[in-house]
Amino acid sequence: MITHTHPTLPDFDYIRPETLVEASEFLALHPNEARPFLGGTDIFVRMRDGFLAPKFLVDVKYLDGTNKLLFDLEEGLTLGAAVNMNRVIASPEVQTYYPLLVKACKSVASYQLRTRATIVGNICNASPAGDTIGACLVMDGVLEIHGTTGLRHEQLATFFLGPGKTMLKPGDIVTAVRFPLPPKESAGTYLKLGRNKLSDLSIVGVTVLGSPDPGLSSGFRFRIVLASVAPVPLVAAEAEAYLAEQAVTSESINYAARLASEACVPIDDIRASAKYRKLMVRNLTEIALTEVWKKLLG
Ligand SMILES: Cc1cc2nc3c(=O)[nH]c(=O)nc-3n(C[C@H](O)[C@H](O)[C@H](O)COP(=O)(O)OP(=O)(O)OC[C@H]3O[C@@H](n4cnc5c(N)ncnc54)[C@H](O)[C@@H]3O)c2cc1C
Q1: Minimal-distance CA residue to ligand 1 atom 7
Q2: Residues with Cβ within 6 A of ligand 1?
Q3: Which of 22, 127, 146, 147 has a CB 3.0–4.6 Å from the CB of 17, allowing a cystine?
Q4: Atom 52, ligand 1: which residue's CA is nearest?
Q5: β-strand 165-166 against 160-162: which pairing, if any?
Q6: 223, 229, 179: which is closest to 202 by C-alpha?
Q7: What is the enclosing helix (H) or strand (E) of 68?
Q8: What are phi and psi of 46, to 5 degrees?
Q9: pLDDT tens digits for the chain (298 residues)?
């Protein structure tokens, strides 16, 4: 890492392509030198801090379709990559049908930052701490990606490979994230533990989405995703499977929270120790599951 007495951005060329095809071709032609960007709230910080020094920054927020926010009762929600978090929060359709997404966006830093920050940027940054990723995963997000061979769709569930690493290839640009309608009568929450209430990444984040499911022994399905406790956003699969089988009670919720905590592989860092994170996952998962369970019972 390069350290500066007075942190500053390294030199780079700003590229503003006219079309998606042009953007993908440029990125594919300069695989190690060019990066796409949206709000820039992650990438500029990483450049300022010396972790990244791309020669070209390709602005993809003016390209076809990247500014759309579309909702349809059949198709669900499509969020263009350039739609900032404040727009998501202010959308009546998102508020009505995807309140968990609103809650997750509101947990990100401040109003000012959210005028720039995007959900797609949060996803593509691939930080295990990304606050909106859990909501996108439990709601079965699908990414629309434009690459050198055209458009394709990828499940978000298989997108993350490690901290900052995704399955995107040179030339790929995420143009939108799509969500089906959430299950009927579903309820969700996102609990974030940070060092302060504003502008800090999570020490631990717990997303829970629950819904009635007559096909499961317990009659309910719970989705649980944990932030900041593994190299990628972590689906607490054992806890989910347990609650699909067992009658939902305070005891089974307590045990599921323990399973979630045991699934974590956190690290010690400046925000918290691994041990503290595991304990907090257990506490917050129990609180989140209980909150969602109460909402489901009405
Ligand atoms: C003060 C401050 C506070 C913050 N607080 C939080 C917080 O509380 N919670 C949180 O989760 N994050 C936080 N962040 C991080 C950041 O704001 C979010 O991750 C944000 O969602 C990033 O979105 P963006 O549009 O700015 O992404 P950008 O910075 O534009 O891009 C992020 C990454 O994604 C890649 N990328 C961007 N667009 C595309 C695309 N279309 N296709 C493929 N790759 C792409 C870029 O190359 C880059 O690597 C904070 C940042 C700052 C500066």
Answers
A1: 108
A2: 35-43, 45, 60, 81, 108-109, 113, 116-118, 120-122, 124-125, 129-131, 168, 173-174, 199, 201
A3: 22
A4: 41
A5: antiparallel
A6: 229
A7: none
A8: -65, -35
A9: 555 566 789 999 999 999 999 999 999 999 999 999 999 999 999 999 999 999 999 999 999 999 999 999 999 999 999 999 999 999 999 999 999 999 999 999 999 999 999 999 999 999 999 999 999 999 999 999 999 999 999 999 999 999 999 999 999 999 999 999 999 999 999 999 988 766 678 899 999 999 999 999 999 999 999 999 999 999 999 999 999 999 999 999 999 999 999 999 998 888 889 999 999 999 999 999 999 999 999 8
For residue 121, the CA-to-ligand 1 centroid distance in Å is: 4
Q: How far apart are CA 260 and CA 279, in angstroms?
A: 10
Ligand 1 centroid – CA 41 distance (Å)? 5
Cα of 125 from ligand 1 centre, angstroms: 6
Cα distance between residue 246 and residue 134, in whole Å: 24
Local structure of 5: helix, strand or coil: coil
- 185: Cβ contacts below 8 Å, ≥ 6 apart: 211, 212, 296
Residue 117 near residue 85, CB atoms below 8 Å:
yes
Q: State the CB neighbour count (10 A cutoff) for residue 292.
A: 25
Q: How is residue 155 written in tokens? A: 């499940």
Beta strands 76-80 and 13-15 are unpaired
The residue nearest atom 38 of ligand 1, judged by CA position, is 37
Distance CA 54, CA 10 (A): 9
- Element (H or E) spanning 233, and its range? none
**105 φ/ψ angles, rounded to the nearest 5 degrees:** -65, -40
DSSP 156: G
- CA 293 to ligand 1 centroid distance, Å: 32
Q: Which of 232, 209, 212, 219 is nearest to 289 (CA)?
A: 209
